[in-house]
Amino acid sequence: MKEMKDGLRGLVERANTSRSYGSKSPQIQIQEIGSSLAIALNTGFNSQFIFNETIRIVHEERVEVMNANFSVVDDDTVFHTIHLTIGEPSAAARISQRLNKFVHDVDASNKY
């Protein structure tokens, strides 16, 4: 649990030190802890789409969402946390790969 807190705290600190004007690049951090996954998703204020797609991908992988919440860090940053229970160990790698690819693709499409 301490690892998860430290990882999430690091993501918030990076968000606070890497301010950008205009659209904010999404960041994702995924941490596996036993049979659980913790997802930290840092998006711009108007990026509800990214959160919704993250949940959609998780549901496609048929894992249980235990908790999902968000907090507004500043005027242009929303910090989402999603806690999952995974049944099979291979699900963690699959989910991580899909979510990282999705966030990377969204970020790349926003730059052009």
Give me the side-by-side strand order of the main sheet.
1-2-4-3
Helix content: 40-55%
Radius of gyration: 14 Å
Strand content: 25-35%
CATH class: Alpha Beta
How many H/I helical runs? 3
Helix/strand structural class = alpha+beta
Write down how many β-strands occur, each being a DSSP E stretch of 2 or more residues.
Answer: 4
Q: Which regions contain 5 or more consecutive residues with pLDDT less than 50?
A: 15-22
Mean pLDDT: 82
Examine the secondary-structure arrangement and name the CATH architecture: 2-Layer Sandwich
Distance between the termini: 39 Å
CATH homologous group name = ACT domain
Overview in brief:
By secondary structure, the chain is an alpha+beta fold. 46% of the residues lie in helices and 31% in strands.
Describe the structure in your own words.
This is ACT domain-containing protein. The protein is of the alpha+beta class and 112 residues long. The protein has one domain: 2-Layer Sandwich (Alpha-Beta Plaits). The chain has helices at residues 2-17, 48-60, 89-110; strands at 27-33, 36-43, 64-74, 77-85. It has a 4-stranded antiparallel beta sheet with strand order 1-2-4-3, with helices on both faces. The longest helix has 22 residues, at 89-110. It is globular. Mean pLDDT is 82; it is low at 15-22.
Break the fold down into its secondary structure elements and pairings:
Elements: H1 2-17, E1 27-33, E2 36-43, H2 48-60, E3 64-74, E4 77-85, H3 89-110
Antiparallel strand pairs: 1-2, 2-4, 3-4
Helix pairs in contact: 2-3
